[in-house]
Amino acid sequence: MSMYCRGLLLFFAIFSVLLQFSTSLISSSGAIVNPSKVKQVSSKPRAFVYEGFLTELECDHMGSLAKASLKRSAVADNDSGESKFSEVRTSSGTFISKAKDPIVSGIEDKISTWTFLPKENGEDMQVLRYEHGQKYDAHFDYFHDKVNIVRGGHRIATVL
């Protein structure tokens, strides 16, 4: 048996043991995630669905924060990096500032715990509203302009 296979078996054995003794992972911030609620829906690209990631309270809170400030969504111009309206994206949306309040901060903690990425690497959360017939055409989150590179650069993960 190759070292890779032994390592993989060891990983699965450890993972199984962890799942037997604990159905949740708790970060140092207290954010709890439950691996048993995660289902992989694609391997290329890697995509997962986490059923019930946000509580009803968290969903309602984010909706309340966003409701008053929803505006027509824009896209980043490939050359200048400035926001512009486009028929590529017809939704309404708004951004919720990082750590705006304890509930938003708690959601950010959960995202960090689940993705294994530092909380400080996250962007402001975006809340989008799509009415019947609205869309966002397929696109890549890749920037050609210097403005968005300076703002943080390319995304390595997206949590929807």
TrEMBL record:
<feature type="signal peptide">
    <location>
        <begin position="1"/>
        <end position="24"/>
    </location>
</feature>
<keyword id="KW-0732">Signal</keyword>
<dbReference type="GO" id="GO:0004656">
    <property type="term" value="F:procollagen-proline 4-dioxygenase activity"/>
</dbReference>
<dbReference type="GO" id="GO:0046872">
    <property type="term" value="F:metal ion binding"/>
</dbReference>
<dbReference type="InterPro" id="IPR045054">
    <property type="entry name" value="P4HA-like"/>
</dbReference>
<protein>
    <submittedName>
        <fullName>Putative prolyl 4-hydroxylase 4</fullName>
    </submittedName>
</protein>
<dbReference type="GO" id="GO:0005789">
    <property type="term" value="C:endoplasmic reticulum membrane"/>
</dbReference>
<keyword id="KW-0408">Iron</keyword>
<keyword id="KW-0479">Metal-binding</keyword>
